[in-house]
């Protein structure tokens, strides 16, 4: 098989696996006050110092388009899970910060969501395979960023 064919085959396999896993995780996402996409925003904020990030930086790390992120943040603001404010260092930027209520909701959902992730991933892969998958996908992500 040529390098091109191998690369395309690997990409297609990776993409189809990701779509299938995401379908399962979407179906098993805990019911509640937020969607899986809103959870992604809270998840990413939870990893930031002081659970806070510039909106433009958040747009770079979540798995959604910029207009979708803005709408979801507005919904999370309305629910009291995040707040928006001006960046003191750059008045043109907006800072998004997770509230304590947002963190509590994130943690409540995270426990159940991590169980679904663990069940899905360990049903197919051993611990060593999961470690290798992490190494390979990290290498791919780092090479393309």
Helix/strand order, N-terminal first: HHEHHEEHH
| Cα separation of the termini | 27 Å
> What overall geometry do the principal axes of the alpha carbons give?
globular
CATH superfamily: Winged helix-like DNA-binding domain superfamily/Winged helix DNA-binding domain
Using the coordinates above, name the CATH class.
Mainly Alpha
Whole-number mean pLDDT: 92
Proportion of beta-strand residues: 5-15%
User: Per CATH, which architecture?
Assistant: Orthogonal Bundle
How many domains would you count in the coordinates? Answer: 1
Give the biggest beta sheet. Answer: 3 strands, antiparallel
Please give the radius of gyration in angstroms: 18 Å
CATH topology annotation: Arc Repressor Mutant, subunit A
Count of helices? 6
Query: What class do helices, strands and sheet pairing give?
Result: mainly alpha
Kindly state the number of beta strands. 3
What strand order characterises the main sheet? 1-3-2
């Amino acid at each position: 098989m040529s390098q091109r064919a191998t690369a395309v085959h690997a990409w297609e396999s990776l993409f189809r696996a990701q779509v299938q896993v995401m379908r399962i995780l979407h179906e098993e996402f805990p019911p509640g006050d937020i969607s899986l996409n809103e959870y992604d925003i809270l998840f990413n904020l939870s990893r930031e110092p002081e659970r806070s990030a510039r909106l433009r930086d958040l747009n770079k790390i979540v798995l959604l388009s910029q207009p979708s992120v803005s709408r979801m943040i507005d919904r999370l603001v309305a629910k009291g899970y995040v707040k928006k404010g001006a960046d003191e260092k750059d008045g043109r930027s907006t800072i998004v910060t997770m509230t304590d209520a947002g963190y509590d909701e994130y943690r409540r959902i995270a426990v159940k969501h991590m169980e679904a992730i663990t069940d899905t991933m360990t049903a197919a892969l051993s611990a060593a395979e999961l470690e290798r998958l992490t190494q390979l996908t990290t290498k791919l992500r780092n090479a393309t960023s």
